[in-house]
Amino acid sequence: MEKKTISDYTESEFLEFVKKFFNVQSTTEQEDAKNILEFKRLTEHPSGSDLIYYPNDDREDSPEGVVKEVKQWRAANGKPGFKS
Q1: How does pLDDT run across 37-78, given as a tens digit for each residue?
Q2: Are 9 and 74 in contact (CB under 8 A)?
Q3: pTM score
Q4: DSSP assignment, residue 12?
Q5: Domain ranges of the chain
Q6: SS3 state of residue 37
Q7: What is the DSSP string of 38-76?
Q8: Which residues pair with 83 in a beta bridge?
Q9: Rounded to an integer, what distance in angstroms lies between the CA atom of residue 55 and that of residue 60?
Q10: Within 10 A of 43 (CB to CB), how many other CB atoms are there?
């Protein structure tokens, strides 16, 4: 089943998706581009892929840090969260 929204993911499933960006040796450039577009679409975060490639200094530079920031931003902006 294709995941259409971030609410179709559990937090751990989304973390596995984000980990792909930190392990670039396992993906092709085409897969990376496709995954970035999907990340931006799913998260709706105004910083988009900068969350991955240019994290704020006050945030952990890791897949877990990305997921935490996405989760906090979505909650603060009244957007649905991850599937339970």
Answers
A1: 999 999 999 999 999 999 999 999 999 999 999 999 999 999
A2: no
A3: 0.90
A4: H
A5: 6-77
A6: helix
A7: HHHHHH--TTTTHHHHS--TTS-SSHHHHHHHHHHHHHH
A8: 10
A9: 8
A10: 23
